[in-house]
Write a structure and sequence with these properties.
Elements lengths: L1 H15 L13 H22 L6 H19 L13 H20 L2 H6 L4 H22 L2 H14 L15 H9 L8 H22 L2 H13 L5 H17 L2 H19 L3 H15 L9 H9 L3 H29 L13 H8 L4 H11 L4 H16 L9 H35 L1 H7 L1 H5 L3 H15 L5 H18 L4 H14 L8 H10 L3 H11 L1 H5 L3
Helix pairs in contact: 1-19, 2-3, 2-9, 2-19, 3-4, 3-9, 3-19, 4-6, 6-7, 6-8, 6-19, 7-19, 9-12, 9-18, 9-19, 10-11, 10-12, 10-16, 11-12, 11-13, 11-15, 12-13, 12-25, 13-15, 13-25, 13-26, 17-18, 19-25, 20-22, 22-23, 22-24, 23-24, 25-26
Length: 553
Amino acid sequence: MICDDMKAESMAKEATQKTPKSGKYRVLTTLQSKAVCLIAIAMSVFHIYANYGGFVLQMQKNNLHIAFALVLTFFLYPATKKSKDKKFNIIDYALLFLAVAGPVYVAFRYTPEFATNSHTIVLDYFMAGITTLLVLEACRRIHGPAIPVIVFLFIFYALFASYAPGLLRFRNVPITRLLFRFYLTGEGMWGSLVTTSASFLFIFILFGAILDISGGAQAFNDIGFAIGGRMRGGPAQVAVISSALMGSISGSAVANVMTTGAFTIPLMKKMGYKDHFAASVEAAASTGGVITPPIMGSVAFIMAGNLGIPYSRIVTAAALPAVLYYIAIMVAVNLQARKQNLAGLPKEEIPSLWGVMKKQGLYLTPVLVIIFVLVQGKTPLYAGMLGILSSIVVSWTKKETRMGPKKILLAMEKGARSAVSIAIACVSCTFIVTVTTMTGLGTTLALNIVKLSGGVPFFALLFIAIIILVMSMGMPGPACYIVVSVVAVPALVAMGLNLLASHLFVMWLGTMSNLTPPVCMASFAASSLAGSQLSKTAWGGLRLAAAGLIVPF
């Protein structure tokens, strides 16, 4: 069976390139390993079909995305470290059944008629509660207890908000309404965060897996060493620069992590950086790309349209803060390299850049294709697929890297496995975002900013910064800017602050929400690539990007 051959090849690869997270996986029987292999491949096939021409409604795509992720989670991750070696029992099989039943139930239940009339039955709420608990248990198994605990605190707040003090007081949200919003609407568990995970996030993760197996990752490693091998912390500095350039174009911190992190994170780990620090560097650098001229994603164009001012003026205003941000990260990387005593490589061990480019330069093609397509204004989905196809084509230039059906299926399995952790993180964070929206917490605070600040601009900025970081949790760049600017900019302008500066302040801090726990999407993505502990990655990324929270002021 092809899964047997793929497993043997995967084990041979892991023998020379161990992943820190491999120790967390459950010990599976041969039959269970084959099942995981087939489910992972089916997950990749489904996402390719759903994102490129297949007629699948967004709601159903999100439902099945989470169903696949839950099933693979309960197959791969044990309940506790002690139960890793234990055989499956009746509870494990029940969880696998419910992992499919929960998302699939709502996929068929959520029809246009239901969306209009919303006639709920007891079974709807039962399935909503079960699926909520399943998601949080899956998140606990992969990422630890931090996110589930925070989710429960937000849910507790929503249920008992009338007892909260002062401005935090809100009418209690009935449990039935909360479950309905979580589970039976196009928001909640199946909203924009999961849409992002099920679309270009999955495709870019798959691109990273194919790039790795095609030989592209090794080529980028060699190029990186040739460029920055002699610098102190050189590979990390290369990661910072490349992420700044790529992020400016892509407009998404998470997509940037998936594109550049596929080769920069292994490069940093190979140089001697700890896995969580390598992931933190990539997350911080990729987030800054969204606020870096000349393109700044698509947010700069939206801002120019909103303000009615030339695009060039926005780019000019944003240039110096972006430079300061990246200088701060590069200094932090240098200090970490000194702390770990990571000097540059000896000259004789550094490959010739010309020699590397001559031998492996073609492997730059997939990334250049992605950059070119994004510059042309195409979608990340379109760019991701062209990157995948070009990786396969380039692999055929050498016999030893040529990707046939077996290697393509191996990449599809690897990509699906890698996507599980970020999919579960995304769906878990939807509970936090939904409660924040339902209770009006962010809006309520914004409306009282001027009053609370006592007319002191610095305090107003400080309060608004906190609100922005809460309201923009998990949002992609353009949506984040649009939402928070509507709430926060009027308060800043009312304080007499400059209009353009106010918009840039909002956009910048909204972007920084990619790094601020608990919903730090860039850190989630980088952690999944590095196989690092999520909490260490998140706080490490925030420390590296601390300047990003200061510069806007």
